[in-house]
Amino acid sequence: MKFDNACLMHGNSPGARTYQRLLLTTALAGMFTILPAIAQDAASSSAEEETQLVQSGADGEAEADAVQDTVVVTGIRRTLQNSIEDKREATSITDVITSDEIGSLPALSIGEVLETIPGAGANRSRVGATEFALRGLGPFFGATAFNGREASNGSGDRSVNFSQFPSELINTVRVYKSQQANQIEGGVSGVVELETLRPLEAARRAVQVELKGNYNSIQDGIEGSDPGWRGTASYVDQFEGAGFGRLGISLGAQVNRINNPIDTYGTNTTQLACDDTVDVTVCEQVSRTDVANGTPFYLSTTSRLFRQTETDDSRDAVFAAAQWQPNDRLEFNVDGQWSLASFGEIRHDFGITEAHAFVTDRDVTDRGILRSYNGISSVDSYSAMRDREETYWGGGLNVAWQATDRLELAADFSYSDTERVDEQFQTRLRTDALDIYGNVTPVANQRIPYTYDASGGEVPTVTFDPRFDMNNHDLFSDDLIIARGDLINKNTITATRLDADYDLDMGWLSGLKAGVRVSELSYEQLNDDFRTTQTDRAVDQAVNLACRIEFPQDNFLASSDTNTIKSWAAFDPACQIREYLGENPLRLRDGSFKDTGNVDVTEDTIALYAMGEFETSLADLPFTGNFGVRVVDTEVTSVGVRSAFAVVDNGDGTIRLEETGGFESQAFAHDYTYVLPSINTTLELSDDFFLRAAIYRAMVRADPSDLGAGRDILLEAGDFTDAQSAISEVTANGSPTLDPLMAWNYDISFEYYPNRDSLFALALYYKVFEGNTIPVVKNETFTVDGVSFTVPVTVSQSTDETSEIYGLEATAQYRFTAIPESFGGLSGKVSYNYTTTDFETQDIRLGAALNAQTGEVEPAIVEPVSLNGQSDHVLSASLLYEFGPFEVQGIYKFRSEYFQKFVGGGRQNRLIRDAEVVDLRASYILTPRTRISFEALNLTDEPRLADMPISGNIQAYEGYGKSYFLGVKHRF
Questions:
Q1: What does the alpha-carbon distance between residue 769 and residue 844 come to, in Å, rounded to a whole number?
Q2: Can you give the pLDDT at residue 652?
């Protein structure tokens, strides 16, 4: 639904927005002023209701702390108490966030839940947390299981996009920071277990609905942008009868319609090292040897752009589970999840397309970073429509049988499938010496002079020749390109697991566990790209006039003080495609999905384990734990295709290569076997003080997309007469022979539990990595227009290099009991993680590389980065204030710079800068069954800043704005 522009609540005038902000500020101030008073009245007037609530459990958000003097513990505090209790009872070094009931985790997403766990950080995207980083290590080094099973995704890596699992339908998030033999292999930093409620474990029948409205601050400046919303419903019930035993069912569903606009400055992801001793038309690249011999260089990208984006983000999710106990020896659990995420974007880009050409008057740092320069470039107005649809299916059946009083047998069958389909239409109009009417432009040239200055802030200051009016549609008159790109990612995991658990009565050895797991993972990435040009200037003129629009945003990149590009001539992409291609633009595709960059990987794994559990004493102190071994055998099959190419003239002075067909498949096989021993121990020094220690070997497999056998051919921009001079480099999009990264891990943890609300913990850990990767340059033969020639190809290859990581993790959680009860309750939590490592990741294009012909390692042009996802510092802190039925929580999160690898091989190093984020949550129990809530994310309006290929060389600035959610939850 679109609001009328005249409506004050969605007005675009400065006065209307000022009124809206004033109204919102007044309302929030009023809420925080009057709620304590209301809470005090409500607390006294509803004391009898609350006592009944504790006794009957009608709401599920209140429990009794004491029997005689009943204390109602609700919401976030109850979740924190449950988490402390679960951590205390764990058999390994573990952190837990858990709630008694479905829909009670205090966060908007699982990623935000995980950020409250000690040592945890997140890769943030569009305000919210998505992928998860533990102990300063990114998602590549961790593993995630959903109800004990691997979950597929549509990204090509092994991480899990937590936004596909609504936090309202999950009641426990468990993070194992030390591992044991009966857990699925795959995590060095830890294993995340997401668990849904088992319906027979619920205390009673529960029916609950929740509705939240959403608003983003960037929407202030976008005309016609609607607020978002999300609705969740869940049902849990139990049945019992003499004929069928006990049966529990749970059902949940969520509809999510959220707007996530984003403002972007970015560069191409190709970074060149250019000779700083010459001024030439196009960057003259230097080799590793040139730099080693003293040739000065500067880093340059091939293009720069400013992007305004409007989004439409929706997700529908359904969860169902049944738990059946026909008798006291047999139990069946079946669960299934389905989600459909649809993401639509309309993009308007302003592009400097020859950023590596005509670069003069350079100011270059001693590390090669361009601080400022003068340039001349063609300028483009891009328009794009992008749609993504991702479907997830997952679930399984678990059967547990108590065969004897001592022996339990279990079987688990699981399936997880994700298909992500990306479709994008893009059009481009470029500046020319003549405008759309054939008149000479003020600059009288296709290329426009500009200055670039990145010395003053996060977004570079770009200033064009004042004769060029970037908002004048008439000046974008030539070199039309229409492109369509389709990309399909398919990921499927099937697994069967058999386990046996035997209780022993043999003194210190209390139990034995053993099992086998057989799984198959398949991953496909399919490309279908099409591109055409149009050279009739009269057609360009007609479409330009028909499809021009006003720039749709009046606060573009307002979060940056140094940005000077506020708007430009924009066009309606749907109109352009319709006018150029007619009513059926879907025909703009080949449909074969045959491409030399495709990925087709199958991974078959068999894992066996045996584990013993012990309970004894050490110096008269309780001493418990487990020890075991897991043996993992994996076979990888990767299929790539090869094709000849033809040169095609783009009509604008550049060329491209198109595959000629006749694809030939090539299959590559690789296998490996590893032994993973582990031991976890807990020494109970007193009732409240625990000492835990663990030693284990863990593995991290390469991402499926990194195991591809395809080739990506990169062409330089500029005027070329033949393909050999245009091809800058061929990069492998993966390597099927990559071995897992192995690590020995040593952990020790001290934990003190003074009361139910308080915890103090200190953990030290040390990891020794066995293996790394290095770029390898070798020659391969390619055929273009019937002519064969040799081109260097860069491939990642495993090495036996070792490295280390040292870490410290500290947590303090405390309830300030000295505060008088009449002033409410105050609790605080602080966690900090520090890591340091000598691990090095070389840039695949500009880092050190092994020359396959000579056997020599060529020195790096740029310095290496650290482990994927490794941050030196991760800090989170929160304060929780409660006053009767009212509670408010402020959360601060900090994560220092880290390397975030692109998904898929052949991409250069990307570094995400330090980030500080402040969130706020508040809720009020309106009635024993109804709660209202308010959440504010990214209150500091923190952008996401990325550098490439070294720190300080800005690659992207992404502004997400602030997001607000107002909701109501009712339990029937």
A1: 20
A2: 58
